[in-house]
Amino acid sequence: MALTLNDITFLASPSGETLLERLAGEDLSDANTLKLVTQLRKGYTPEQVRAALEMARLRLKAVDKFGDAARRMFFTREALEQASDPQVRQYRARRLAAYAASVVDAGCGIGADSLAFASIGMSVLGLDIDPVRVEIARYNAAALGLVARFAVADVRAGLPEADTVFFDPARRDERGNRLHDVERYIPSLSLIRGWSHPVMVVKLSPGVELAQVEGYGGQVEFISSEGDLKEAVLWRGADFAGLRATLLADGEEYYWDNNEYPGRGEPPVRPYNPNETGLSTPRGWLVEPDPALIRAGLVRDAAARYQGYLLDETIAYFTTDVYPDSPWLRAWKILDWMPFNLKKLRAYLHQRGVGNVTVKKRGTAVTPDDLIPKLKLAGDEARTLVLTRCRGQQIVMVCEVMPGESQQQRERAGGV
């Protein structure tokens, strides 16, 4: 449902706050909705009940992104979905503060990023074309005790002066479909060509095609949090150039820079060559780089740094002789490997009493959900099966289970 300005005015009133406090302790499940609505309508209008239920449910959903503060904030469903990971918001704010004291948040939405900037002392002006989102942003700043200004404005008409601009265009259309072309973002990325601010920072889809943004110059940064890829960011101005992978993990920040886009020059690591002794089969450890490294095209760089060899030029795995100890990498001990054949794999697992498996895949059409029932597993042993390619050939690697992996897990990975 779409919230209105009247809804926000009511929810921010003493009566609205009382209702939201009550709902914070209620069962908000669909099964209990009719009973709850019937009770609430004795003291509130249908519109007030509808708005309060929506906000109460959004607050519960927002805890993952805003922690305990979510219980004091307002949201819209669409803006909450687009809000950045909390670690990423704070990281971007810290990085930006090294270059600027003031920022215009163009397309500020409900103010999530504006508040991150304000929390570290930056002067913030948030602009958005939607009056409801601007009013929510104002409410959120006041609720959290932060100083930031917000105004209704169409950023396509121009921006006021500031040290920097943070631009977060919508990456979904009116039907909720993802927009993969940066020139179809709302507003389009080309809008920044008319801005002259010393530093510009643009939030992109993590799946953005690098060819679409290479002409804008600057640096494209892929950011993962605790091993999950969260977003891509375009940094323009200052000395930003090339590609960067950033990993936020266990309270630390890790960076991996590449001054050139992938595909320029010779790769630092050769793929397997069947004519070279020792390079034609997987080694002792299967290594999977962090997804930020993969999206930044830095798999070969990682393989070179850790004395690894690629399994296939199109696959984002490599193997090493020794365990690679790095926050950037996950590694599995390879026990065996073979060309993929269902009957031979099933016989192999039965002979060893394997009754539980974790299945990973890259570069194969075989799906874990289809494979696991056909293996007809029986036994107490557990293994990780990795379906992938080696020099164009479909193979399966049998690995030790990594600590923390669940049994009978079906894990899907990308094709590169």
Structure, explained:
The radius of gyration is 25 Å and the shape is globular. The chain has a nine-stranded mixed β-sheet with strand order 3-2-1-4-5-7-6-8-9. A seven-stranded mixed β-sheet has the order 11-12-10-13-16-15-14. The chain has helices spanning 5-12, 14-23, 30-40, 46-66, 77-82, 86-97, 112-119, 131-144, 210-213, 291-295, 299-305, 342-351, 368-375; strands at residues 102-106, 123-128, 149-152, 164-167, 199-204, 219-225, 228-237, 242-249, 252-258, 285-289, 309-310, 318-320, 329-339, 354-361, 381-390, 393-399. The two termini are 38 Å apart. Helix 1 crosses helix 4 (46-66), helix 2 crosses helix 4 (46-66) and helix 6 (86-97) crosses helix 7. It is built from 13 helices and 16 strands. Strand 14, helix 13 (368-375) and strand 15 (381-390) form a beta-alpha-beta unit. With 416 residues, the protein is an alpha/beta fold. The chain folds into three domains: 5-75; 84-258, Vaccinia Virus protein VP39 (Rossmann fold, 3-Layer(aba) Sandwich), CATH 3.40.50.150; 285-399. It is 30% helix and 25% strand.
